[in-house]
User: Fold this.
Amino acid sequence: MDAGCGVGVLGICAAQALTRAGVGPLLVRSQDRDELARIFTQENAARNGLGPALLRAHTEALLDCPPGERWDLILSNIPAKAGLPVLEDFVNRSAALLSPGGRVMLVAVATLADFFRTRLREAAATILREEAGTEHRVFVYTSGAAGNAGAPEQAAPEPRVWRPCYLRSSARYEMEGVGYRITAVHGAAEFDRPGGAAEAAAKLLSRLGPLFPTGKKGEFRALIHEGGQGHFPLWFLEFLKKAGQALPELLVLRGRNILALEAAQGNIAAAGHTTGGACRLCVSPGVVLNRPPARPDRPDQIDRGLGEQRCAFIAAFPPAPPKTASPASPIIDPYRELWDSLEALLLPGGTALLAFPAAEADRFDRKKIAGFSRLGDLKRRGFRALAYQRQGY
Assistant:
């Protein structure tokens, strides 16, 4: 396993080196909390001649894997910014995930070397080797109990993000007179307050009011893209409830960060909005707004809800687009793709609400395509929220 794989360097190099050494049969599982990392890893593996029979990329947080899986080798260039509780959890769980005789190879910044030595000693792991570089340390360790891979892990309750190591804070917030509670996690933005884009979007929607059409089957469906840890998605549901409008039968949460998505999922469930089937949730890792392909690496998270039906409401908080092409975004004009996605996913008469840093909002608005009329425009603290209605009924 390459845990926290980034663009896939460690897993790809390991697969090549072990293959040349005649180790096999071999399977490398590369995983990262960021969907964009999965896409880059998958593309880079293919460019290096490594097909899915040898290397498979997944959108998962660090050591998350199917219950009962054991590994002969776990590699990680672990990010210090993950937070000390997450790093300590990695030490505690990694050795227990090893097969008998298995090893962990952990790369850490040099300033955390003492932290990892102490934690490895407390976890009764055996340090087999330590290498020092100018800015990093590499620890090679195994389970402290000879030949014992540790007790099998039990399947964690959903959402898995609620493991204690991820929990950061819990507080009540308010936007536009609508209150809600957020439990925030390490490894995702908006952990201490809603972002400026979410605040601008909430202010604009509160002015417009919740008037949404229904689809062919009379269902109200909504999609929120890059809604963070749940500030805007949860506010949106509470806003509808306060306005006396029914909640969406289906709410799709999409974004790059699986930790943020699962935090939002947990916050919505904790508020009781999914109790008794009042609002079905679909969590769907994705980099762009439009429908992603079926995801064999996360069969429980396939975007199975939308089908051929469109949404009555779409809220999106797109990050600034890359300046150059990438495997995830090979197009030259990302804002045109965003408009095409809105056209494909939004019901006639439906509302699209988007919030950006002000300069990016200007670029997006200039690309507006035929068939959309602007409903509202609001600037707030360097952010700009724009609302559009798709024409035709």
Remarks:
- The radius of gyration is 23 Å.
- Residues 167-390 form a domain with the Rossmann fold fold (CATH 3.40.50.150).
- Residues 146-157, 299-305 have pLDDT under 50 and may be disordered.
- DSSP finds nine helices and 16 strands in the chain.
